[in-house]
Request: fold
Amino acid sequence: MSQTMTPDHALATAADNPYRTHACGSLGTEQVGSRVRVAGWVHARRDHGGVYFFDLRDRSGLVQVVANPEQSQAFLAASKLGSEHVVSVAGTLRPRPKGTENPKIPTGGVEIAAEDITLLNTAKVLPFEVDSAAGVSEETRLKYRFLDLRSQRMRDNLKLRHRVGAIVRRELDALGFWEVETPILTKATPEGARDFLVPCRLRPGTFYALPQSPQIFKQILMASGVEKYYQLARAFRDEDLRADRQPEHTQIDLEMSFVQEKDIHAVVERFLKAVFKEAMGEDLETPFARIEYENLMRRYGSDKADLRYGFEIMDLTGLFKDSGFKVFGEAARAGGVVRAIAASHEFSRADIDKLTELVKGLGLKGLAWIKWTAAGPESPIVKFLKPEEIAGVEKAAGAKPGTVVFFAADKAQVAAPALGALRKELIAKLKPAPLKPWSFYWVLHFPLLEWEPEEKRWTFTHNPFTAPLAEDMPKLDSDPGNIRSHQYDLVLNGTELASGSVRNHRADIQRKILSLMAYSPEEQEEKFGLLLNALEHGAPPHGGIALGFDRLIAILRGEDSIREVIAFPKTQKGTDPLSEAPGPVGAKQLKELHIKLDLPPQPAKPA
Ligand code: ASP
Reply:
């Protein structure tokens, strides 16, 4: 992380501050010989034959303190210090004796010869040492989050988070965006998850919902003439436990009027470029690549494929149009596809079985393969294929001895995601070197609707307010499943980082799409009335995006989980060990809210 990022040295305040004149991490050869006062936490104390050494830590870093017997007050105080006691230390800064410098820390060339040590607070025996949380359970780390956050790792995470937020705000301000807060106590917003509800005491039987996103309000802000809105917004989604989800997360949320997709993309590219430059010292190439959803699915089998790697999917449907090999020929002739992916690796029988299980779980009937050896192509299916078919595969794959080609023959909707999952697995297993460190790209023109087989209706793929492409409008009546939309995602290294769209600013079109999703006119009024009403009173064309702020920071810090970049996250069970939320509430409070509980029976206690 760049050193100039945060003025931690400004931690020390006025010259007559009783606690400190300097920040620990700011001390260096420049101050040698001067009297300094620092304050912080005792990081590690060492007793070296009649001399006490300890590292004092504040947010800016560490500095070594030495207490000699000649300074009796400081020496006696130092003898009683324990880990994480809070002290203020005055003394003279001197160079460390030759050979004892510590090049690993910025203050490693100096130390404070303590003259006065004031104990400001003690600390109980610690459940774990600061900076040694590696083997500690997440439950314990979160219960003692205040200790965990004192570590270098977590400080750097919070510091970067703060810094990135500051850069984004600055860039958006420069572009004329206004930060507007939208309500937390609101009505349900449809983002496809469950709402968290808050009972309303003053109107018994009614509930606020916490926003799944500021979506409706930011659109209403466009109808209000705000034109450029943003917010580092909290979004609440009561989702089932999925890997690395939090019930509340932070989005860089924005919306703009009188724009096309590319204007919105340019805003995001601009602030990300500044973030990468200033916080990471890296030059991002912009504009980012753009790829149509359909094209991406065909070539990589996933709408968030990690394009740091190759492994492109080949479409061989044409090659097998007349194939006598039933599995391929029938798929190719019946409107399906034959697609394949090649990898160079010595796959064992067990490896291939595992890959077969994976794609079968995704609906493929099996996983055909051909392996090239010095003697030529080998596989149980080779005998069914014509020489020109094998030659065609060999050419498409650039096959050499060691190459294995895996095939998927099915409907495109089945083959594409199965090969996408196979590609992901091959990358995880073969661990090829990435072609580049950061792979950003925009996915454009997602389908507007997808069929919900259980409920037998169309539903939105991302957002119910997305506008269809103008040229696909006629399909609203004839072919809803094939309408492309102005919905886009931004993908970074295989993660969906942001999602947004150009919206329907005309109520008639919005109503038509809601009707396709089987919302009756009454339901439309009840659920979306506030937005529709705003659209009907002069809403300008508008669009926007929301970018996962926690996710961005986690990726920048190389953290696997967003829990590591949120100061007070919930566990994967949705609980907070620090505050013990969620917790029961007393009978009095429930009564005030007119709530009677009807809890499921408790599981029987084991005898
Ligand atoms: N509201 C959307 C979301 O939270 C983002 C957007 O379309 O602006 O994912």
In short: Residues 1-5 have pLDDT under 50 and may be disordered. Residues 6 and 102 are 24 Å apart (CA to CA). The radius of gyration is 30 Å.
